[in-house]
Design a protein that fits this description.
Largest sheet of chain B: 7 strands, mixed
Radius of gyration of chain A: 13 Å
Order of helices and strands of chain A: EEEEEEEEEEE
Helix content of chain B: under 10%
Order of helices and strands of chain B: EEEEEEEEEEE
Shape of chain A: globular
Helix content of chain A: under 10%
CATH architecture of chain A: Sandwich
Distance between the termini of chain B: 39 Å
Shape of chain B: globular
Largest sheet of chain A: 7 strands, mixed
CATH class of chain A: Mainly Beta
Distance between the termini of chain A: 36 Å
Radius of gyration of chain B: 14 Å
Number of strands of chain A: 11
CATH superfamily of chain A: Immunoglobulins
Structural class of chain B: mainly beta
Protein name (chain A): IGL c1411_light_IGKV1-5_IGKJ1
Number of helices of chain B: 0
Number of domains of chain A: 1
Keywords (chain A): Adaptive immunity, Cell membrane, Immunity, Immunoglobulin, Immunoglobulin domain, Membrane, Secreted
Largest interface: A-B, 22 and 24 residues
Organism (chain A): Homo sapiens (Human)
InterPro entries (chain A): Ig-like_dom (IPR007110), Ig-like_dom_sf (IPR036179), Ig-like_fold (IPR013783), Ig_sub (IPR003599), Ig_V-set (IPR013106), IgV_Light_Chain (IPR050150)
Number of strands of chain B: 11
Oligomer: heterodimer
Structural class of chain A: mainly beta
CATH topology of chain A: Immunoglobulin-like
Strand content of chain A: over 45%
Subcellular location (chain A): Cell membrane; Secreted
Number of helices of chain A: 0
Chain lengths: 106, 124
């Protein structure tokens, strides 16, 4: 099984901050990684696929990078709508999610 | 616009079988580019993939749940279903259905879109 580990688990930030979330895979997954945003009581929403491809309609302040075992999701300038929990998901071998990173208001 | 909607009992007794259906609207479940998946999320916790099915009936299951899971598809109704047997309190979760993209590679990739989710509580 491929394990996905996100850091930090919680992140406190202010509007306008640059935010970076890290996701590490227990073995190489090439670029087979997606990122999701989930707000309380709602289903996850796809943000990025294939590590760095932005899903249609997702604001350009979101970006993804990385390959192999280390990946990052960056929000260039945090907006009020971005306070949420973010999950990474690998699809190299079956499908597993990271434990999530909650972005909260500082 | 593709939409998915979960339905089924919100309360299941321990040792019984959890049964949920996902109805797909705004698109065909028989598309060659997609699988259809189930994911769950225990209250306050993270996401766990349960299994996925192709319109032909081909399935993938999470090895940790495989002995208890059956996913089936009904193309005439544009629906797919989940059965999870011998449930315990640990199976209490919000259950989501989602389209599982398989357009980019032979194996499925990411999940998009998702249904709104349905909370299933296991309790006597």
């Amino acid at each position: 099984d491929i394990q996905m580990t996100q850091s930090p688990s919680t992140l406190s930030a202010s509007v306008g901050d640059r935010v970076t979330i890290t996701c590490r895979a227990s073995q190489s997954i090439s670029s087979w990684l997606a990122w999701y945003q989930q707000k309380p009581g709602k289903a996850p929403k796809l943000l990025i696929y294939k590590a760095s491809s932005l899903e249609s309609g997702v604001p350009s302040r979101f970006s993804g990078s990385g390959s192999g075992t280390e990946f990052t999701l960056t929000i260039s300038s945090l907006q009020p709508d971005d306070f949420a929990t973010y999950y990474c998901q690998q699809y190299n071998s079956l499908w597993t999610f990271g434990q999530g990173t909650k972005v909260e208001i500082k | 616009q593709l939409q998915l909607q979960e339905s089924g009992p919100g309360l299941v007794k321990p040792s019984e079988t959890l049964s949920l259906t996902c109805t797909v609207s705004g698109g065909s479940i028989s598309s060659s580019s997609y699988y259809w998946g189930w994911i769950r999320q225990p209250p306050g916790k993270g996401l766990e993939w349960i299994g996925s099915i192709y319109y032909s009936g081909s399935t993938y299951y999470n090895p940790s749940l495989k002995s208890r899971v059956t996913i089936s598809v009904d193309t005439s109704k544009n629906q797919f279903s989940l059965k999870l047997s011998s449930v315990t309190a640990a199976d209490t979760a919000v259950y989501y259905c989602a389209r599982h993209d398989a357009a980019a590679r032979p194996d499925p990739n990411w999940f998009d879109p998702w249904g709104q989710g349905t909370l299933v509580t296991v309790s006597s």
